[in-house]
Amino acid sequence: MLHTLNIYRRLVSVQMRSQMQYRVSFLLDLVSTAAIILFEFGSIALVFERFQHIRGWTLPEVAFLYGLVETAFGAMDLFFSGFDPRFFGQNVRQGKFDQLLLRPVSITGQVFGSQFVLRRLGKIALGIGIFIYAISMNDILWTLDKVIYLPFVLLGMFLFFGGLFIVGATITFWTIESIEVMNILTYGGSFVISYPMHIYWDWMRRFFTFVVPAIFLNYYPALYYLDKPDPFNFPAFAPFISPLVGVAVFLLSLAFWRFGIKHYQSTGT
Q1: Which whole-number Å values give the CA distances from 101 to 92, 137, 174, 265, in the listed order?
Q2: Which tens digits make up the pLDDT trace of 164-205?
Q3: How far apart are CA 194 and CA 43, in angstroms?
Q4: Each residue of 203-219: pLDDT tens digit?
Q5: What distance in Å separates the CA atoms of residue 229 and residue 107, rounded to the nearest whole number?
Q6: Taking the mean position of all CA atoms in its chain, how far away is CA 83?
Q7: pLDDT-based confidence at 1, cuts 50/70/90?
């Protein structure tokens, strides 16, 4: 384990030095990534400027959802970039994954360390900024329980979307090309839970409740923090299963990953 962690640290260090070799280019990437989030949230603010609220949710309340998602997803995208199906599928197709299998090092650790995209820090920084705006504008009654639980909410989303990245990467063993359905669940899923779940059609809400349980990652914790009523009358423990959902999806994804490696056949490239 210590050997794997040391290899991972070295791989990440190489990635960081490589990306910061050209400082101006790195800063431009960082700023452009942050600017995209800023413009997206700005467009949301313009909608609220016109309509004041969406199904009873104000801009600061939606910002609470948005800031949490962008922070967690940005951190996941930073650490799980090596499993991004778009990048990983290309490596499989080009035979680069076969090279990793030949090395006497944990294959999972190598994939984790194969990409560490520092420009994601811009996304994380804007997510934190939006979340700070949200908690400053919302009248949240902070208790010790709420303070302690907040990192676990972020961890739940981090592991959930990271697990989906691993599932998408594993599927490319058989499809070679990355599959768009995983982009719908990852990037699309993060977009969906950036807004109150009760604004969506019934079929979409049921899908993200009973098929992909994303509703418990962000929406229900937000109801708890903002002291808003539950429109779906779920059990009282619903706001507190976000970490469990994230851990469950992550562990299942690792099991699927090991299955995929066991049955992987080289592309012959």
Answers
A1: 11, 51, 17, 11
A2: 999 999 998 887 555 677 878 888 889 899 999 999 999 999
A3: 14
A4: 999 999 999 999 999 99
A5: 46
A6: 12
A7: low
Question: Is residue 237 a contact partner of residue 221, using CB atoms and an 8 Å limit?
Answer: no
**Amino acid sitting at position 201:** W
One-character DSSP codes across the chain: -HHHHHHHHHHHHHHHHHHTSSHHHHHHHHHHHHHHHHHHHHHHHHHHHHHS-BTTB-HHHHHHHHHHHHHHHHHHHHHSGGG-HHHHHHHHHHTHHHHHHTSSS-HHHHHHHH---TTHHHHHHHHHHHHHHHHHHS-----HHHHHHHHHHHHHHHHHHHHHHHHHHHHHHHHSS--HHHHHHHHHHHHHTTS-GGGS-HHHHHIIIIIS-GGGTTHHHHHHHHT---TT---TTGGG-HHHHHHHHHHHHHHHHHHHHHT------
Question: Which string of b and e fits 172-203 if b means at least 16 CB within 10 Å?
Answer: bbeeeebbeebbebbeebbebbbbbbeebeee
Domain spans of the chain?
A: 2-262
Q: Are 163 and 249 in contact (CB under 8 A)?
A: yes
Q: Which residues of 206-233 are buried (b: 16+ CB within 10 A; e: fewer)?
A: eebbeebbbbbbbbbbbbbbbeeeeeee
d(CA 155, CA 261): 26
Q: How far apart are CA 95 and CA 238, in angstroms?
A: 44
Residue with tokens 């949200």: 134
* Closest to 15 in 3D by CA, of 159, 107, 114: 114
Q: What is the pTM of this model?
A: 0.91
